[in-house]
Every structure is written in structure tokens, then in C-alpha cells.
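job 3f2a | input accepted
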Amino acid sequence: MRRGKIHYAKYGYIFSIPFVLAFLVFMAYPTVYTLIIGFTDLKGANATGFHFLSNPFENFTAILHNQTFLMALQNTGFIWICNFIPQIALALLLTAWFTNSRMKVKGQGTFKVLFYMPNIITAATIGILFYQLFGYPIGPVNSLLQSLGILKEPSQFLMSKTTSQMIVSFIQFWMWYGSTMIVLIAGVMGINPALFEAAAIDGASGTQVFFRVTLPQLRTILLYTLVTSLVGGLQMFDIPKLFNNGNPGGATTTASLFIYNLAFQGTYQKNRAAAASMILFVIIAVLSAILFFIMRDRDAAKLKKQERALRRTAKRGEAVSL
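job 3f2a | predicted structure (322 res):
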């Protein structure tokens, strides 16, 4: 008797239906609508009707020549770099610490919860908290530095462009390094234990194991972390908005905050805000593609090329024999 084959693929499609429906309703339609109004004259607080522009790329050209938008892009990139580099460095260090079988760190669960805790606190709470911490003239940070003799008079931290950017970068780093660490630890747990055992038998040190075994095997996870951090960093909105509302002098105005202000404040230029959103989308897509190219597995790519060459050679041989 032949046993009937069980096809599990249909269950995957069934479980994906709620996500697909939610995406079509809440994501696909707004995305397409945003793309369309980027080519129109839609603006105003209560405007609903619009007309397509005679020059369809007028809004995009205006945004690319907008100095505030270019400054917002620079702010976004600077803040993301300043928070991501220490974030990934500390996450990798903690991952090596927790996954080192020789160290046998006690209380790992408690440490992981504490490190991950900032990620579950709402951005509104953290933004207001840090705004109060660096308050002037009375604030915990000013009071502490004065009591230690570091400052003679209260400092207006929130009026300094560089200081404000560094604070926002620190907040982003503090919120997300625990989440990055959890993802990396999960990646390490998926590595074949035989590789670590072989390295231990060969007498490799902990540092050698981390750089020669762990990191190469984490290529895919690191790519995921880089891309998600890039996307989240370039869409940074809540902390700059709630911490200092883009001030001082637009130093903490990110691209997403610029788009929000353009669409929902002042002249309500929704058409140009949509154009800025599409430009930001293209920037994210291009940078993500570059990361995919840089982080690709070169050995696997070479093998694929060799396989393709062999197939072509085989096909040519078959054609000649025929």
C-alpha cells in the first residue's frame, strides 16, 4: 500500500493569511497612496483632492534641493553611526561572554533580562526621562556634576548641538544593544557544537574561537542585524521628537521627523512629504543592497559560479554530441 504524502506547505499559507491581509490593508495601500501623492499638488490641513503635476518630479527635485532635508539626512546618518558602532561592539562582547563554555557565567538569565529591559520601555517614557535628566538649571546630571566639582555652574546640555546628538545616540544605543545581544546569542546557539569541540581539541583560545569560528558562522545573523539596524536608524523618529523635538537648531531633526513636520505642521505639504518618504525608501534600499553585497558569502558565490560553468559546459557537450 502506498502511503499518502502529507503536504505541510498549505498550513504555512493558512497561517500567513492574517499577516497578508493586515499588510494589504494597513501597509500596502498607504505605501501606494504615498507614492501617488508624491507626484501631485496635495497640501493643506484638510485637503483631500489633488491633481497630478505637469512636471511629475517637481516635488522630488524640490526635496533634493531642500537644505533642511539634506541636513536631516546628515543628522540621521551621524546619530545612527554613533549609536550602532558601540551597540554592535558591546552586543558581540556580551555574546562572547555569555556563550563561552569555559567561563560558565552564573545568573545569565538575570543579566539578559536586565540588558534587554530598556528595549521594552516605551520611547515616550525614555525621551521624557532623559529630557528631565539633562534639565537646566536644575537637573540630576547638572546636580551630580556640580557636586563632584566637574562643573562650577549648570550647563545647558540641551542647547548644545553636539551634546544633544550624543544624548540621542546614547539613548538609541542603550535601548537596542540588549535586543541585538539576544539575536546574536540565538545565532551562536544555532552553530554546530562540533565546531567548538574541534577548536577546543586543537587548543584554540577563547579569542581565536570567537574570531575564527563564531564570527564567520554569524555572517547571516550579522547581516540581519545590520540591515534591521540600518532601517530602524534611518527611520528614527520617536526619540528625537520626544526628547528635544529636533532642537537645538535642527541638530536632532532626523529624516523621519522632517517628513512628519512637513506633512503635519505649518503648510501641510503632504505631497513633498510623500516625495521625501520615497527618497528615504530608495536610500534605505540602496544601502541595504550594498550591505548584502559586502556581507555575501564569497566562497558560496564562487561555488555557484563554478556550478553554472559546469552546467554550461555540459549543455554545450550535449549539443555538440547531438
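job 3f2a | The two ends are 42 Å apart (CA to CA).
job 3f2a | closed
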